[in-house]
Amino acid sequence: MSLIGRLTEKSWEPAAPGAHLADPASYRPAAAKVGLVVLLGVVTMLFALIATAYVMRMGVHGPVGHGGGDWVRLSEPPLLWFNTGALVASSFAFHSAVTAQRAGDARRLRASLIAAGGLGAAFLIGQVFVWRQLDTSGYVLALHMGICTGVADPLALPTGQFRSGNPAVAFFYLITVLHGLHIAGGVAAWARTTKRAFDGPTSAAAARAVPLCAAYWHFLLLVWLVMLGLLIST
Amino acid sequence: MATVTHPTLADDLTPLHHPTTWIGKYVWSQDHKVIAIQYSLTAIAIGLVALVLSVLMRLQLGFPDTFAFIQPENYLQYVTMHGMIMVVYLLTALLLGGFGNYLIPLMVGARDMVFPYVNMLSYWVYLLAVLVLVASFFVPGGPTGAGWTLYPPQTILEGTPGNDWGIILMLVSLALFIVGFTMGGLNYVVTVLQARTKGMTLMRMPCAVWGIFVAAIMALLAFPALFVACIMMLLDRLAGTSFFMPALMSMGNNPGYEGGSPILFQHLFWFFGHPEVYIVALPAFGIVSDLISVHARKNLFGYRMMVWAIVIIGALSFFVWAHHMYVSGMNPYFGFFFATSTLIIAVPTAIKVYNWLLTLWRGDIHLRVPMLFAIAFLFTFIHGGLTGLFLGNVSVDVPLSDTFFVVGHFHMVMGVSPIIVIFGAIYHWYPLITGRMYNETLGQIHFWITFIGVYVIYLPMHYLGFLGVPRRYYALGETAFIPQSAHVANQVITIAALVVFAAQAVFFVNMIWSLFRGPRAGHNPWGAASLEWQTPDVPPKHGNWGEKLPVVHRWAYDYSVPGAPRDFIAQNEPHDPALKHHPT
User: Fold this and answer.
1) What single string gives the DSSP state of each residue in A18-83?
2) Residue B299 is nearest to which of A9, A12, A24, comparing CB atoms?
3) Chain centroid to CA A138: how far?
4) Could you tell me which chain A residue has the CA closest to the CA of B247?
5) Size of interface A-B (CB pairs under 8 A)
6) Predicted confidence band at A150 (pLDDT cuts at 50, 70, 90)?
7) What backbone phi and psi angles, to 5 degrees, belong to B451?
8) Measured between CB atoms, which of A45, A68, A154 is closest to B224?
9) Contact call for residues A100 and A108 (beta carbons, < 8 A)
10) Percentage of chain A surpassing pLDDT 90?
11) Can you tell me the distance from the alpha carbon of A230 to that of A54, in angstroms, rounded to the nearest whole number?
């Protein structure tokens, strides 16, 4: 039944004999699948709000601009492109895992999953190097600097040299770290899925987990591409 | 296959997690009913802290210069912690984590939530958030006193109470709360979508489930805004960024911030904050619909319209947030848009109010305690809703914005109304949850003192607001435009608040005493048609439905059907072709 049909049902009237009595499990998708869609909806909202805040803070002219003219364009390290390549390749590997699982090709399934996880980890390690590069170029956040230079009370209100003036840098860290956490969650899901796939490549558990994990991964890539576009275009 | 993909929807009980130890059953429990009770007790416990804070505030306002231990900075801390605890840690947690957890699986005919382990984690993360919040009372400088909206820049600057530890703990606690809530919210939404039993179509769900379902979706979409705001403010506080902090001088020093936008924070906060009003209100709307129908022995008037109104209110509430910001200095043209969208919400809300009244019309009204609270909600909600129309208009809001009128409006519509529904709901479902009946006389005493008391407290605040008495002030002092009558009103309000505060002891005594000494409630004491009352055991056992899941044949509101043997027909009773259908 269509959504409109469901929402316009006159439930106070007696239903036709036998109506609505099909076994729900026979036509509903698995709960995990719907749960993933809802979760990705929440993550979309999170990044959409950060992107909105980013644009507003930049100081676009007009009614939504709130920036104070202190935005200095950041030239992103070229390493980001390498990392992006790794994430794209990782997504392809996941796609290969899904097709292998469907075809019942256990060897390719395992190889694809290992490749996908490895490339995902490479992305995360690459991001750490990006942060280190920014760090050495002087783009640091005060807490980090406070702890590293042994300030007596790193939780005190940062002042003077511990202030990171450029909001472009602050947003860069905020977005990449939150996306990194998102990836870390993906790596945890990948570990579970891979274990299931190694335990039984043709099992029902693997058949459910592999496509869901792949969908999560493709979504991660999509979020990254949108965020990267925002970061390098401004 | 069915037993694997939908364990909560199967006759087979084996896939459910069956605890064997006491700790597994009652502490690390994955049973939605136990988690619901854990959520509720924690929320009520922290709510009591906020209640005590409100009494301290009232003591100061009614009798200034009397209590030496209440200093101006303490007063600001009370305001802040009272507001944040009541809105987020009590109302949201109790209505969604408590009632959502208890009612959804029982009302849709499922054995449990679809992800019981995640559901359990949700509670423990919530508890951690509460503990972090409570910890802020004991750190140097105490909890934050920035006001419950935590507006920058003053929130993290020197001179604001709790600007060193308190604010950090508050922001961390909120972030934890949101993580915990997201786990629970996922469960509520997916359980409603995926775990309804055979025959339970969307439009056969009771309104309580609809309210909780839509509120959970809204919360999943709105809480990320608060999460982002908290993280960014935490970075401003700890990492020296300037997301929200503008260039300014503070106490003669330049703290070095530059270029940040305080209004950006306000947009993020209220993009969460306004839907939050309806995240609390929609479950209350749904619950009150069910209470009125059951205790008036009459089907809910305009059920389909009631459901649509819930959905429309939920959607519209994402387009009204800046009506909290008329005086913020945002672009004045925004005011026109947001005032219009705010007033449009009054339409579906009014539909709901009319339908409640028309459900009561010519019903067989039983004035038992849950029904008294349900009817009281109609009074307080109409009252609070109408003063909302005042404040939704820019030109009226600007002079009233910083006065006690806002306190009166807000507390009637968002403080008293949902709490009244929560009391009604606790009395209504107490026989199901505990298997025992509460004491009716104590319940009536509790109701009347609370209901009359809240009017004595909040009605004069509207008058104070018109006089221009400012809110958030520690003391009014000698102020020419504030007459003596305002001070008298403040004393009366404080005395009423103390009486209402003390009367809540009657409620707690009733609940605890009845738990051990109350008469056995038996099966379905109210004669309710909805599914949660049709369980084989009272209180329902783990897995809820025994051997076989129920099959649903009708909606949840078949009351007083002509020719039926009883004055209600349970949702799981098959249709009798000989029975004449009751026209709506």
Assistant:
1) TTT-S-HHHHSPPHHHHHHHHHHHHHHHHHHHHHHHHHHHHT-SSTT----S--------THHHHH
2) A12
3) 27
4) A68
5) 192
6) low
7) -65, -50
8) A45
9) yes
10) 50
11) 9
Average pLDDT, chain B: 93
pTM: 0.94
CA dist., res. B183 & res. B203, Å (int): 26
Q: What is the dihedral of CA B241, B245, B248, B249, to 10 degrees?
A: -80
What are the chain A neighbours of B331 within 8 Å (beta carbons)? 63
Pick the closest to residue B90 from B280, B278, B373 (CA basis). B280
Whole-number pLDDT of residue B380: 97
> With pLDDT > 70 as the criterion, what percentage of chain A qualifies?
84
DSSP state letters, B509-537: HHHHHHHHHSPB--S-TT---SGGGG-SS
Three-state secondary-structure class, residue B468: coil
Mutate to test the interface with B, among A12, A42, A70, A159 (most CBs of B within 10 A): A12
Q: Give chain A positions within 8 Å (CB) of B224.
A: 42, 45-46, 49
Tokens of B438: 């509460």
Residue B37, both tokens: 């009770």
Q: Does A46 touch chain B (CB under 8 A)?
A: yes
Lowest mean pLDDT among B141-155, B363-377, B468-482: B468-482
Please check the confidence at residue B6 and state whether its pLDDT lies above 80.
Answer: no
Check B554 against A15: CB less than 8 A apart. Answer: yes
Rounded Cα distance, B330 and A65, in Å: 10
Q: What is the ipTM of this complex?
A: 0.92
Nearest to A142 among B189, B240, B581 (CB): B240
Where is pLDDT greater, at A207 or A46? Answer: A46
Q: Which residue of B has its CA nearest to A8?
A: B304
CA distance B345 to B329: 24
> What does the pLDDT look like over A55-71, one tens digit per residue?
988 875 444 555 567 78
Per-residue buried b or exposed e for A62-96, using 16+ beta carbons within 10 Å of the residue's own CB: eebebbbebbeebebbeebeebbebbebbbbbbeb
Residue B80 φ then ψ, to 5°:
-65, -50
Interhelix angle B166-194/B207-238, rounded to 10 degrees, is 150
Return the higher-pLDDT residue of B532 and B27.
B532
CA distances from B107 to B192, B207, B290, B528, B570 (A): 10, 10, 12, 12, 12
**How does pLDDT run across B398-445, given as a tens digit for each residue?**
999 999 999 999 999 999 999 999 999 999 999 999 999 999 999 999
The gap between the terminal CA atoms of chain B, to the nearest Å, is 40
DSSP symbols for B403-434 = BHHHHHHHIIIIIIHHHHHHHHHHHHHHHHHH
Q: How far is CA B577 from CA B406, B550, B561, B580, in A?
A: 56, 20, 13, 8
Over residues A102-111, the pLDDT tens digits come to 998 999 999 9
Q: What is the largest CA-CA distance in chain A?
A: 77
Tell me which residue of A41, A177, A171 sits closest to B264, measured CA to CA: A171
Element (H, E) at A17: none
Query: Do the Cβ atoms of A11 and B232 come within 8 Å?
Result: no
Query: Coil, helix or strand for B559?
Result: strand
Mean pLDDT, to the nearest integer, of B455-481? Answer: 93
Burial class (CB in 10 A: 0-12, 13-18, 19+), A136: exposed
H helix intervals, B195-302: 207-238, 262-295
HSE-CB for B578 with a 13 A CA cutoff:
3
| Cis status, amide bond into B153, omega within 30 of 0 | yes
What's the pLDDT at A205?
Answer: 84
**pLDDT in the model for residue B584:** 44
Q: What residue type is A1 in one-letter code?
A: M
Tell me the DSSP string of A127-154. HHHHHHHHHHTT---HHHHHHHTT-S-T
Q: Which residues of A touch B552 (CB under 8 A)?
A: 20
